[in-house]
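Sequence in, structure out. Go.
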Amino acid sequence: MHIHILGICGTFMGGIAAIAKSLGHTVTGSDQNVYPPMSTQLEELGIKLTQGYDVAQLEPAPDMVVIGNAMSRGNPCVEYVLDKGLPYTSGPEWLKHNLLQNSWVLAVAGTHGKTTTASMLAWLLEYAGMTPGFLIGGIVQNFGVSARVGETPFFVIEADEYDTAFFDKRSKFVHYLPRTLILNNLEFDHADIFEDLNAIKKQFHHLMRTLPCSGKVIWPSQDEALQDVIERGLWSESETLLGDWDYRLLKADGSEFEVLLDSQVQGVVSWQAMGEHNVKNAIMAIAAARHVGIAVSVSIAGLAEFISPKRRMELKADINSIKVYDDFAHHPTAIKTTLAGLRAKVGTDKIVAILEPRSNTMKMGVHQQTLIDSLDAADDVYLFEPENLSWSLKEYADKAGMHCMKSTEEIITQVVATSTPSQHILIMSNGGFEGIHQRLITALEQN
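Output:
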């Protein structure tokens, strides 16, 4: 079958393309911005890519058009598909019918930590010899890819609450048919598609309705929003963090901790990751792995070899004891926990935080003061104010004594000029941030 994917260069749709190719389909696709690393990965798989949305790419007509959720009415290819009556579907729906229907799906949902926790879980299954398939919103460094089919019925997926497609406004995760479900946490996000937290809770309730009675949901008992979701309906087995499962930090930065089940110590994890938030992610990954038969002791051993996904506190450079990190954090809670983990690790060393408020929620000004407060653990803060921001970031930054600039070049110049040894520079954005990471590294090396 010839499958053509509109919006192919996103991490999720690129993963769909790789899986479809592995299943034996002929795959082509297009995107507005066809560029590395996803374009390189796809071309290495033999997938032909088209820049832009000229309708000529749909002639001759493919057997199925898979439409990404970034596509909207008015897009030339979308209009052509509808006018010509070409068969089309969404990425999540295609995945459901072509792979997930006959799999034991382990899904990871929540506002924060999905990519990291799903990566941990996929690695624990791999470490235990289960050779799982997976589709994760980031490059899993233990595997070097973001998606694969796998060799067993087990499939790990990052279960996103964002909408499915222009013609299906349900959350993606309602298509995934999980048997093992991790709910990391739940806060208000995606203000561009959800009017309030209750609207997101409703989608999580719909997800709960798809879980079989023999399935299991694993969730943090102290999360009030998730407590509300559970109270709306629970038809499966349930285990909780800070209830059935617990942990005890042996090092303040979370690099070593005890795992507890029913108040009994199961063993000690010593690993490369940092931050108490990642400890919580690890406990829930261990619980999910146990649901498919992996002994806790095996998971504890596996975590010692786990490498965090790219762009999750990824150390990009160490230049004369000045360390530069890249992190995907873009919600105040994620920013706060990421900085707390780094502070616990580096003690009194200077931390410089550089942040681009790029998400739609941030641009709309939903988390204005909360964003500023989330940066308290940093010694010096540089905020990038993009032109399309609907509120004055500078006004809040000035009150807090933070730097706010409209130019990444200006940020680089000032950070380099004030840099000192034993300093940690943390760059946070869920986008490319004008390539600031490598530009800053180059400037530090030249300096």
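Check: The mean pLDDT is 91. The longest strand covers residues 133-140.
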